[in-house]
Amino acid sequence: MLGVEPPPPPAAPPAPYLSAFLAAPLALAVVDRRGQVVTANAALSAMLGADEPAALEGRTAAELVDLASDSRTWHSYREVLRGRQARLTCTRRIKHPDGHSLWIQVTVSPVPGGRTVLLSLTDISARRELQARLRHLQMHDPVTRLPNRTLFFERLSAALEAGAYDGAGTGRIGLCYLDLDGFKAVNDTLGHGVGDRLLAAVAERLTRCADRIGYDRGAVAPLVARLGGDEFALLVEDSAGTEQLAGLADSVLRTLQEPFDLSGQRLAVSASIGVVERHMEGTTATGLMQAADTTLYWAKADGKARWTLFDPERNAHRMTRQALSSGLRPAVERGEFVLEYQPLVNLGDGVLRGVEALVRWDHPQFGMLSPNRFIGLAEEDGSIVQLGRWILRTACRQARAWQLQHPEAPPVYVSVNVAVRQVWDSDLVADVAEVLAETGLPPELLQLELTESAVMGSAGRPLQALQSLSDMGVHIAIDDFGTGYSNLAYLSRLPVSVLKLDGSFVRGFQYDDGGEHATPADAVIVEAMVQLAHRLGLTVTAECVETAAQAARLRQIGCDTGQGWLYSRPVAPDRISALLTTS
Fold it and tell me: What is the reported pTM?
């Protein structure tokens, strides 16, 4: 029997208060210092299912209300009995003899006089039930009745925490994260009422799918939750591996492919699903959801109506891309970019005529990066304007330095690539005028290169900018010509002075030891473009010239300038100075 050291014999409750004690609606009992019930009232006997209050006398109070079930409560209770603690309040769930359960609030406090304590019980079952209902409403989506984002993350965090210490399961977790393709169009065209009915129908199918998977495995069904909007998640605890998650994703896609009949309105929807499966150890809820969100994005980018499995290598590439993108603007301010220069050589006499400025990023983490690693990112986020100004200023300053250092040599022009966003998002004409004035470089020694797709079809501001630059004396070149619109007739209306043939045409000039070219069609195309360009008063530069045979053929066709590894790779400014000294 539970108890403590025997105290002095208890005194009965004072007679004036006995009647009030026995008739009180609050369940009460007087307990002696040994923990045994001295007397109880009718409310307590009714709550505990006793025949009469006298049946409780001599019973151990701790057993009646389960005070010994946890060590902390049991210790506090004994301290109250010994007079060392003023009060104990706790909540307990007890079993009524008729089978139903009760939630009660237990309070134990000393009775003046020091020989007994008063035990009082309050039935809080209704309050607990209300709290449970409120929590259910708080944790469930009202449209689909599925667990919402809050409950999902609570379950996910609990699963990961349990998986870190429980060696009984597989130690793995899986997640299918999906959203409906084109759901916004349903809301926009048919109304949110139809959209909500569709979401509820989707939730019902996902739940059936999860229940079927759980039944087939003989395990708990995956948790299905609506995370918001048209986003749903299926959480698989103790995953059996990626094959199981792939099978679940396939099942979900097949389930959703069947048309939905919503009050006579037939709708067909599809879903994109990101699938993640991994060890629980070292996995966090945030990390798992980030991986799932990324993979869902891949599924949509890959064409929608499909599932995609998380790929660490692809994610590493994405993270690298994100790191580069976020570091572009600060990198310009920190001076992490450098320029190299590739010679542009006259095909007729082999004399250096100009150089193309090519930017490199000396990244502190990833090393020296070529333009194809970051220029596209700079165009996307607009930092190409800031970077382009730096390239223009640096290249013009260097070209002017060469001119001053080698007054005896023919001056070489510098060719700078310009993104179309620089024309739209900045005053390119003002930028060029400012740089030329600042560096002292003559306008005719600056050439600006724009891609064919950026120039063709230009109108309004871009065309006006190009015309103003041409009027200033700056040369305009079309880069990678022949790969875009190839609207040759439009060239006559553009202030363009140079065409740069795309390297794919030059690479087609392949020769064997006998000197016979293997691809005559490329030669015919290039020759036609060169002749047309010359008739329009334009000069032609051939890119990617790698062999003397290619150079000879291009010279024969009539190309004016060549650029490529035959002459030089992109080099530092001092190497260009050396070439000017020896020319």
Answer: 0.60
CA gap 355, 579 in Å, rounded: 11
CATH topology of domain 322-581: TIM Barrel (3.20.20)
Same fold? 16-128, 322-581: no
Burial 94-133 (b: 16+ CB within 10 A, else e): beeeeeeebbbebbbebeeeebbbbbbbeeeeeebeeeee
Rounded Cα–Cα distance for residues 254 and 306 (Å): 10
Residue 361 has pLDDT above 60, yes or no: yes
- Exposed/middle/buried for residue 498 (C-beta within 10 Å: 0-12, 13-18, 19+): buried
Give the C-alpha separation, 315 to 298, whole Å: 10
Q: Please give the CATH topology (third level) of the domain spanning 16-128.
A: Beta-Lactamase (3.30.450)
With beta carbons less than 8 A apart as the criterion, state whether 354 and 412 touch: yes
473: helix, strand or coil: coil
**pLDDT of 170:** 84
Q: How many Cβ atoms are within 10 Å of 488's Cβ, its own excluded?
A: 16
225 sits in which H/E element: strand 223-228
Rounded-to-integer distance, Cα 355 and Cα 352, Å: 8
- pLDDT tens digits, 446-502: 999 988 666 665 555 678 888 999 999 999 999 888 765 555 666 777 889 999 988
Mean pLDDT of 167-185: 88
Q: 420-439 burial, b if ≥16 CB within 10 A, otherwise e?
A: bbbbeebebbebbbebbeeb
Half-sphere exposure of 107 (CA within 13 A, CB side): 13
Would you kindly state where each structural domain of the chain is located, as residue ranges? Answer: 16-128, 140-310, 322-581
Measured at the alpha carbon of residue 429, what is the angle toward residues 424 and 435, in degrees to the nearest 5? Answer: 120
Residue bearing tokens 């980018």: 301
Q: How confident is the model at residue 9 (pLDDT cuts 50, 70, 90)?
A: low
What three-state secondary structure class fits 38? Answer: strand
Query: Using DSSP, how many helices (H) and how many strands (E) does the chain show?
Result: 21, 21
Mean pLDDT of 421-442: 92
Cβ-based neighbours of 302, under 8 Å, separated by 6 or more: 308
Q: Are 511 and 549 in contact (CB under 8 A)?
A: yes
Q: Superfamily assignment of 140-310 in CATH? A: Reverse transcriptase/Diguanylate cyclase domain (3.30.70.270)
Strongest mean pLDDT among 6-20, 170-184, 444-458: 170-184
Eight-class DSSP state of 283: -
pLDDT bucket at 514, cuts 50 / 70 / 90: very low
State the Rg of the chain over Cα: 41
At residue 549, φ and ψ (nearest 5 deg) are -65, -40
Q: Where are the alpha helices (DSSP H) in 406-547?
A: 420-425, 428-439, 452-455, 461-472, 503-507, 520-535
Question: Interior CA angle at 382 toward 381 and 386, to 5°?
Answer: 130
Kind and range of the H or E element at 75? helix 71-81
